[in-house]
Amino acid sequence: MPIIVNTNVTALKTQASLNSATSTLEQSLERMSTGLKINKAGDDAAGLYVATGLNTQIRGSKVAQDNVETGNNVLSIMEGDLDVILDNLNRIRDLSVQAANSVYSEDAMTAMSDEVKQRLAEINRVSEASNFNGLKLLNGDPASKLSTQGLRLQVGANADEAGNCIKIEPEFFAKLNSSTLGAKMDNVGNIVDEAGTGITVADGLSGKDMANVDAAFSSASAAAQYINMLDAAINDISNKKATIGATMNRLDAAAASLTTTIENNTAAKSTIMDADIAEESAEYTKAQILQQTSSALLVQANALPQIAINLVQG
C-alpha cells in the first residue's frame, strides 16, 4: 500500500462513515421526537402522497359525522313538534267522541267546540314556530329551501351524491297545520284534493259553506263524522313520524359506517406515517455507537500520513 500525503483515502472513508452515522442519528432523533416516520417529503414521497389522501378522507369523514348529528337534531326537533301536534289531535278526537254521545246540552257542546278551537290554534302556532337554524320545518313556506329543494345531508367525505348524500324530498316539508292535516297537499302546501280541506272546517257535514269547527259540534252525528277527519289527520302525523324514524335509523347506520371508515383510514395512515419508537431507539443506539467509533477512528486515519515524516527524517 503506497504512503500518500496529499490524499488520505482512509480518512475520507472514515469521515463518510461518520457522516452517515451522524445523519442516521439525527433522523432517529427527529422521528422519536415527532413520533413520525415521515417528517418531510424526502423521507418517503410516495408514502406522504398516500398519507395526505388518507388524512383528507379522515377529516372529511369527521365533518360528515357532524353533518349526521345535525341531521338527527333537525329530525328530532321536527318529531318533538309533531308529538305536540299529535297530542292536540288526540285530545280533539277525544272531545269529538265525547260529543258524538247525544247527552250533552248546547252549552256543553259549545264548550267542547271552544276547546277544539284553542287546540287547533295551538297546532297552527306549533306549525309556524317549528324551525331549525331559521329553517321552517312545518309551515310549508314556498320561499323556503326545504319546500323547494328538500333536505340534503352530506354523510360522506366525497362529492359523489349516490354514495355520500341522504336526501329528504320537498314533499316531506309540506305545510302541516289545521287547514292541511287530513287533506291531500302538494309540496308547497296547496290543497289538491277539493274534497279535503283539513280539520279546521267540517266539510261534508252540510256542504262547504259550513266552514268552521262549530259545525262539527252542532250535533252528535256531526261530531261522529268529524272523527273520520281527525283520523285522517292523525294518520298524516303517523306517516310523517314513520318517515322520520326510518331516516334517523338510516343516519345512525351512516354514522356507524363513518366511524369504521375513520378507524380504517387512521390505521392505514398510522402504518405509513407513525414511527416505531422501539425500532428508532435501536437505530439511534446503533448510530450513536457508529458515530463514536468513526470519530475515534478518524483521529487515527488522520494520523496515517505522519508516517511519511518518519521516512523523511530517517
CATH topology of the largest domain: f41 fragment of flagellin, N-terminal domain
The gross shape turns out to be rod-shaped
Radius of gyration over all CA atoms, rounded:
39 Å
Q: Which class do the helix and strand fractions yield?
A: mainly alpha
Fold and architecture overview:
With 314 residues, the protein is mainly alpha-helical. It folds into 2 domains: 9-35 and 276-313; 78-257, f41 fragment of flagellin, N-terminal domain, CATH 1.20.1330.10. It is 66% helix and 4% strand. The protein has helices spanning 9-34, 45-99, 106-129, 145-149, 161-164, 213-216, 220-273, 277-303, 307-313; strands spanning 131-132, 135-136, 151-154, 165-168. A two-stranded antiparallel sheet has the order 1-2. A hairpin with a 2-residue loop joins strand 1 and strand 2. Helix 2 (45-99) packs antiparallel against helix 7. It is rod-shaped, with a radius of gyration of 39 Å. Residues 185-192 and 201-211 have low confidence and may be disordered.
Give me some keywords for this one.
single chain; 314 residues; f41 fragment of flagellin, N-terminal domain; two-stranded antiparallel ribbon; 4% strand; rod-shaped
Compact overview of the structure:
The protein has 314 residues and is mainly alpha-helical.
What is the fold's blueprint, element by element?
Layout: H1 9-34, H2 45-99, H3 106-129, E1 131-132, E2 135-136, H4 145-149, E3 151-154, H5 161-164, E4 165-168, H6 213-216, H7 220-273, H8 277-303, H9 307-313
Antiparallel strand pairs: 1-2, 3-4
Helix pairs in contact: 1-8, 2-3, 2-7
